[in-house]
Amino acid sequence: MTRPTDKAETQQRILTAATALFMEHGYAGTTISAVAERAEVSRATVFWHFNDKAGLFREAFSRLLTPFRESIERELSALEPRKRLHQQLAMSDRFAREHGDEIAAFVRWAVENPDHREGVVGALLTLNQRFSDAIARTVAELAPDGADPNLLAHGLMLAFDANLLLSVFDERPHASDERRAAIEAFVELIVHNRTQRGA
Questions:
Q1: Could you say which of 3, 84, 167, 171 would form a disulfide bridge with 79 (CB–CB 3.0 to 4.6 Å)?
Q2: Residue 143, Cβ neighbours under 10 Å: how many?
Q3: Is this structure's pTM higher than 0.90?
Q4: CATH class held by domain 57-198
Q5: What would the pLDDT profile of 134-143 be if each residue is shown by its tens digit?
Q6: Where are the domains of the chain?
Q7: Nearest one of 124, 98, 99, 92 to 111, comparing CA atoms
């Protein structure tokens, strides 16, 4: 009888192998046989855990986003708003830098393969909206009088998303650092105005 830990370990091996192969060969170029061989399991085992290649693709993408999903849900209310905003942006930036290649690959395959477009794009947009909502709640505590916190949060998210997108195409380290510095300057402007308001 397969123990629960054995099942989880087998699934993780399959997902790790599948993600690597999807990265190397794309969706069309990845076969269940190749995944099974790399994961050192049988084809039947892959099918038993994930039904088909499409299911394996969806689960691999979902698992990829799990750390970011968990970071958004992390309780940060104990931090004062300025520190919380910096922490939220730092966690997201770290995730984007550590997994940018994988996310770009999955998005590229979604664009190339209409069968997966809705699922991949939908998952990314949902995650982006949750992150945007978390940022908006924090910015609402920092926004100066007369400023719309939702617009400030939206502007901050546009800058963050633009940096993420541009980083896929422009890998020059100094360019990414400059964009990151611009985002930090925007944050400091919001914080400064809040400080001035309280003075």
A1: 84
A2: 21
A3: no
A4: mainly alpha
A5: 888 899 888 8
A6: 1-51, 57-198
A7: 124
